[in-house]
Amino acid sequence: MLKSRKHVFWEALFVTAVIFVFGLVIGMYFEQVRIDEANVAFYESEANLFDTIAFIDLFNSGKLSCEEAVNMNVDFADNIYEESKFIDKLKSSSKLTNSLKIIHKKYDLLRVVLWINILKVKGDCPKTNTLVYLYNYEESSVEKKAIQDTFSKYILELKERRGNNFILIPIAVDQNIKTLDYLLKNYEFETYPVILVNENGKIYDVESLKEIEKYLS
Amino acid sequence: MEFITWVYLFYMFIALYFLSLFTLTYLQNKKYFFSYPEIKKHFSISVLIPAYNEEECIEGTVESILSSDYDNIKEIIIINDGSKDKTQEIAKKLEDKYEKVILFDKTNSGKADSLNQAIKIAKGELIAVVDADSYPSHKSFSQMVGFFEEEGVAAVTTRILVRNPKKFIQKLQEIEYMVIAFSRKLLGFLDAIYVTPGPLAIYDKHVLIKVGGFDTYNLTEDIEITWRLSFEGYKIRMSYPASSTSVSPSTLKAWFKQRLRWNIGGMQTISKYKKNFFRKGMFGFFILPFFVFSLFLGILGLGIFSYRVFRRFLLNYLSAFYSFDSNTSLFLIQDINLHPSILHFFGVTLFVLGFAFIFVAIYSVNKDLGKTASFLDVIFYSIIYMTLYPFVLIFSLCKFLKGGKYSW
Fold it and tell me: Which ipTM score applies to this complex?
């Protein structure tokens, strides 16, 4: 009456492997779809960056006003800020591939280029307000992660409140971007996260966040 | 891919594998679930009831055995293991009242030793062990004895069900017992039954004596004897239509104590047979690894889960603290992430499949009983009750590693 069916162990392994591989393939497909979306957004931003660079060249030739140059940078910074928020959300859902990390790095690179551009513009237009938020993409310390969360929320609220009044440039410092590493050496930051306001105000702790508005003109 | 993702995927693979294994085994053997061999040889049975302070149940247990439809119960031996209540007095009355009942009085030495002593005086060809608080169903013995006609069968177990669950914790255990019974039957089709529980199990007396009887040093002599029989190459069968109801703990404290005993007993058994990994057929290739890996994965899983929960809690606490400090919002609508990951999909799929498994188990066990389980109880069982178990496991492991003498 009782049939011993020990081959069921192999059958179960086969069924499991099929379901699992199917699940992984579906998962990778969905992740790829999201990555494609992020990539399309990035290509647009990349095109906008070239537009901005060309615009700055035009500004340097003296054909544009400070206000126009600043507005161009603000628009571009806002665009890539919005896109990177979307990328950050995808980060927690992207488990199987590390493509999003690379896309994030590309965005960070865009923002480094933007920062350098703004530094160039600032020579002629000193009233340009900038807020550079430097943080770690892979932060292992819970305390620093909590500080980063608070900083992010604070600058987001500030941006919503003050709009085009300042250029917001959040950059992850641990993405192995050589230009950024050299750039940061000039500022001698003690630790990250840090918020650099108008090239001289450095905010390291949450208690000092309120001081940001003092630095912004 | 992050290390933690690998860990999650590994756990999901293992869970999916066992779900597939059980599902396939069920589908392939569904029609044999309630079948049992017809009795050709009417083996004589000695029923042993080890009793320690069982004044409340002992009479009911004896009555339920006496009402059995099996025609060759030779004797019912009540082993009074030095009880301090009225067990001895009640047993004496039962002995006087019924011809088959024998009172075997002895000083307290534990359940395993009590059984070993009683086996020596038992006259039956088969030994049925019935816990003093358990009531075998009317047809149980006749639905179990037929299995002994198959060559090599040394023990037959059955469904153990909770008797009259009243409290919530007992209702959860009722579901648990049903899932265990269903899983054990499935394991039976794979020659991988790992326990013949005390509420009702029948053994071949000759084999029991040959392997040296029950282990007096083990807290779960019913697990140990099953492993030993399997280790020696004997078969263990399960009669699904037969059943025995048993009293389940009605308080969390009593439940915890019972589970502690089960787990420590299981660990003692693992320790005894640890050298037989991937040796000795199904015993070394499935039962032993299944037990050890369940233990290992349970503890590791709880460790990872606790670490993640603690980290998340700490992060939220610090974020809230800093947000208050900087007069920032605690939570922003932008923080809501509507992009589930592949792990979420796998997790939900596994939960649904696991849930379905529990329902199939309950349906299967209740098929002949006409009972149903509350949907809410099953939800609570799946989410809360099952989550509690790894904590008991860790506590048991600490106690086991600490050593010393354990008590019932």
Answer: 0.81
The pLDDT, as a whole number, for residue A1 is: 42
> Nearest CA to CA, how far is B8 from chain A (Å)?
11
Q: What percentage of chain A's residues is helix, strand, coil (to nearest 5)?
A: 70, 10, 25
User: Can you tell me the distance from the alpha carbon of B114 to that of B184, in angstroms, rounded to the nearest whole number?
Assistant: 27
- Sequence-distant (6+) residues with CB within 8 A of A44 are none
Residue A5 CA to chain centroid, in angstroms? 56
CATH code for position B6: 3.90.550.10
Counting residues of chain A whose pLDDT is more than 70, the rounded percentage is 94
Structural domain count, chain A = 1
Within 8 A of A146 by CB-CB distance, chain B residues are 315, 318-319, 321-322
Sign for the CA dihedral angle at B330, B333, B335, B340 comes to: positive
pLDDT in tens, A87-97: 777 776 666 77
- CATH code of the domain containing A158: 3.40.30.10
- The answer to whether residue A3 sits within a structural domain is no
Render pLDDT for A59-115 as a digit per residue (tens, 0 to 9). Answer: 777 777 888 877 877 887 887 777 777 777 777 666 677 777 888 888 889 889 888
- Tell me the C-alpha distance between A121 and A56, whole Å: 7
Evaluate if residue A3 carries a pLDDT over 60: no
What distances in angstroms separate CA B292 from CA B268, B288, B295, one per listed residue? 12, 6, 5
Q: Which residues span the domain enclosing A58?
A: 9-215
pTM of the model: 0.81
> Is the CB of B191 less than 8 angstroms away from the CB of A98?
no
What is the identity of the amino acid at B171? K
Between CA B278 and CA A137 the distance in angstroms is 45
Task: Determine, yes or no, domain membership for B168.
Answer: yes
Residue B49: name the closest of B89, B84, B93, B101 by CA: B101
Name which of B189, B318, B339 is nearest A143 (Cβ-Cβ).
B318
Residue A194 lies in a domain: yes
Contacts A–B by Cβ distance under 8 A = 130
The whole-angstrom separation of Cα B49 and Cα B195 is 18
Total count of domains within chain B: 1
Please check whether residue B333 lies inside any domain of the structure: no
Q: Is B107 on the interface with A (CB under 8 A)?
A: no
The larger pLDDT score, comparing residue B332 to residue B142, is at B142
Q: Cβ of B311 and A142 within 8 Å?
A: yes
What 3-state class would DSSP assign to B44? Answer: coil
* Residue B332 covered by a domain: no
Q: What is the pLDDT of residue B225?
A: 96
Q: Determine, for residues A145 and B315 on separate chains, whether the beta-carbon distance falls below 8 Å.
A: yes
pLDDT in tens, A157-190: 888 888 777 888 889 999 889 999 999 998 888 8
Provide the pLDDT confidence category of residue B247 given band limits of 50, 70 and 90.
Answer: very high
Does some domain include residue B330?
no
Place of tokens 């053997």: B29
Q: Is residue A1 part of a domain?
A: no
Domain that holds residue B293: 1-323+339-408
Q: Which of residues 14-33 of A touch B (CB under 8 A)?
A: 15-16, 19-20, 23-24, 26-28, 30-31
Q: Which residue of B has its CA nearest to A27?
A: B342
Number of Cβ within a 10 Å radius of residue B287: 25
Q: How many residues does chain B have?
A: 408
Residue type for position B76: I
